[in-house]
Design goal:
The chain is α+β, with helices and mostly antiparallel strands. The protein has helices at 4-17, 40-48, 155-164, 169-173, 184-194, 207-226, and strands at residues 23-28, 57-59, 62-66, 74-79, 84-90, 99-105, 111-117, 123-128, 268-272, 275-279.
């Protein structure tokens, strides 16, 4: 799935080409694309017509488009899933093979917004916003934590949560209720940079070590964002259909049997939660098994110490 850098690239493109435009018409070409909208396809299209879009927002891997008008406080929530694409295309461009939703605008810009999704795991839906939230956060993702590039991300709370949870560090990095936007690729990259094994218990991370890891998460995501994210195939593209190329700079992910760029040891891959974890066995040594102390056995009583009662 696309992670924070890939989704942020899309958000920036939508902000440039879609924000501030009024919706003229919406065509839902596949019902699964709006299956999370409780009112169905016709209701989704009708409730968007005539609305003026605001500034596109993102939290973790989710995008939403609030409305900049006086109507009900609602936002369009977009989840790209495994293969979803939000493309800004000329109105006369041929339809994509897996086009699911088309949004036309009431202006003469000559472009329209298209949601294309080969596997139909993603989709668009309309949701009420969290009361009082200035960014129009949809209530459906109110439980998603802020991401590490968010200025409001609370580092102290993040470390406290790490210490309290009985889990391992990579599981924690992928827990979207703890820290959002980090997926399998960037978790492996940050852990390699921090020289941490993916199975390291979170309770063993002191505050400076947790802060160091968080710094590496930010560094690798910022570097990926600068080159358009990571695109292993044509499914992960920006709004103009262009792929990112951070895969050329990956230090861990996908590099099984290749030499570690730090020490030269062959990188390894291990199955992990229906995914894979890539790591250097020398730089990222696995944690030692916990040693459970056994209670000392009581010495047997000497028969000479026993008294016979007559």
């Amino acid at each position: 799935m696309p992670e924070l850098p890939e989704v942020e690239v899309v958000r920036r493109g939508l902000e440039r080409w879609v924000s501030g435009r009024t919706v003229a018409e919406v065509q839902v070409l596949h019902p699964r694309a709006v299956r999370r909208h409780l009112g169905g396809a016709e209701d989704f299209a009708a409730r968007l017509r005539g609305r003026r879009t605001g500034i596109v927002r993102r939290r973790g891997k989710y995008l939403w488009l609030p409305f900049d008008d006086d109507a009900a406080a609602e936002s369009i929530l977009a989840h790209l899933g495994m293969s979803g694409q939000l493309l800004v295309q000329p109105a006369e461009a041929p339809d994509e093979k897996h086009l699911r939703i088309r949004v036309r605008f009431a202006d003469d810009a000559g472009t329209e917004l298209r949601f294309v999704d080969q596997r139909t795991f993603g989709g668009l839906s309309l949701h009420d916003t969290v009361p009082g939230d200035l960014e129009g956060l949809p209530d459906a993702i109110a439980h998603i934590a802020r991401d590490p590039l968010d200025p409001a991300f609370d580092e102290a709370a993040f470390h406290t949560a790490l210490r309290r949870r009985r889990t391992t560090i990579k599981r924690a990095l992928l827990d979207q209720s703890l820290i959002s936007g980090v997926g399998n690729i960037y978790a492996d990259e940050a852990l390699w940079r921090a020289r941490l094994h993916y199975d390291r218990p979170t309770a063993t991370l002191a505050r400076p070590r947790a802060a160091e890891l968080l710094g590496h998460v930010r560094e690798v995501m910022t570097a990926a964002l600068a080159v358009g994210g990571t695109s292993f195939d044509s499914l992960y593209v920006n709004v103009n259909g262009e792929s990112g190329y951070f895969e050329r700079s990956l230090d861990a992910y996908g590099r099984e049997d290749e030499p570690c760029r730090r020490c030269g040891t062959a990188m390894r891959r291990r199955p992990w939660m229906n995914r894979s974890s890539y790591f250097c066995p020398r730089c990222q040594r696995p944690p030692r098994p916990a040693i459970v102390a056994r209670p000392a056995s009581r010495p047997a009583a000497s028969p000479l110490s026993a008294r016979t009662v007559s």
